Fold:
Amino acid sequence: MSKKQIVRVFDEYHKSRMQFVQTVADLATEPRNIQVLQNAGVMSMLRALLLDVNPSIQQTAALTLGRLADHSDDLATVVVEENILPSLVQSLALQNRFYKKAAAFVLRAVAKHSPELSQAVVACGGVDALVSCLDDFDPGVKEAAAWALGSIAQHNASLCQSVVDAGAVPLLVLCLLEPEMALKRITASTLSEICKHTPELAQTVVDNGAISHLAQMIFNPDAKLKRQVFSALCQVSKHSEGLAEIVIEANIFPAALACLQDPDKYVKKNVVTLMREIVKHSLALSEMIVACGAIGVVIDYLGHCQGSLRLPGIMLLGYVAAHSENLAMAVILSKGVHQLALCLAEEHESHIKAAIAWSIGQIGHHTPEHAKAVATCDLLTKLLELYVDASSSEDLQAKSKKALKTILQKCTYLLGLEPLLYDVPTTILKHVVGQISKVTQLVLPHDSQARRLFVTSGGLKRLQEIEAEPGSPLQEHIDTINNSYPEEIVRYYSPNYSQVLLEQLEHYEPA
Structure:
């Protein structure tokens, strides 16, 4: 056989192998083909093709493995069990950029599913190999490596620490400076995953100078980048007051508020989430954010979104109001209570309603003026309805009850208290009547109009209908309230008063 014939045989051989692996790669893009491929034993075939002398075949085999592993944790587990990862990791430092991107894709696809699979990537030296790729000249390789490292870091602090210990953070910060938009996005996302677990991990990112670079990117017009930037800043800010102050010192406010006008709903959500994570720490930080005009724009934001997008804004108002009477009043004056009432009427998820109930409690528990603002929006009855509703979750019932009790202790607005006398559990009724008793002693002697309104609204009549045990605290409260009115008025609104009058009429003898 001539040399030419031998070359032709090898060409045909490689051509057939390339055709096979390309066909499998195409089939792997369709979910309906995955199970058939697995049953045909394609994993073992692809593992062998990773060692092929043809680089194109190696790259396509790696890409196909990544697609299969990306599909499910079961297939990712097969990749681990077939001992494919070590050969991929070893060749990362030796192969060309196309292979490196494909190999990093495989490692990401395996790691994303669970901590256990991520640990398998770590155990075979995958983190060190990926970190070395962050120093590659090709931005596509850097992007693939950063993405894979983010998939590892996302699961828990231990895996994240392995990424940090391998020296990933300084290189990731340098990747933020690269011009490629896709690389910036993935890098910001990976830094967010690193920061989210512990204050120490977040501090590592801060110490490597990431905050100043992230802060500059909030002005970038790319919405996907801004999502990740604000997410990373959120994850830093949430851990402590000190870290939140570092984020603020990067001069992102009030400029970040302008991003609440961004068309992208997730950019807006992440901005509000960032502010929520900052204000929760202290009065000083809350006052700083409020001074930027945050309350008004957040309330406006709540009026233009639905569902989970509202959650960070709802909680932000609660955190701000919790710190002081003045901040709570600022929320009230900005129509925050009215907006929360609208949210409560429109939302159906229990966890969102629970957050609203909590925020209402933080606003209304300070003074009688704060409590009145809540009562005039009919929120006391709404909280009561949520508490007694059997379909409410335990958390919603608990938060509604706590908010109702704390607001009741401050409420002196009788027209707001009177509706709570009807169809109410005894555990709440005693607090309502007790508070009315306090108001009777403190307010009614000096406010004849309030005393009259409590009678005409039906409140006094309802008190006489309550069946309380003689000598009980509830009965003592009722007696205290009754003593503030003429005996004839109390008797007039007592049950069966008309029957008593009729009996008197029967025994009446005209003079």
The CA atoms of residues 25 and 102 lie 12 Å apart.
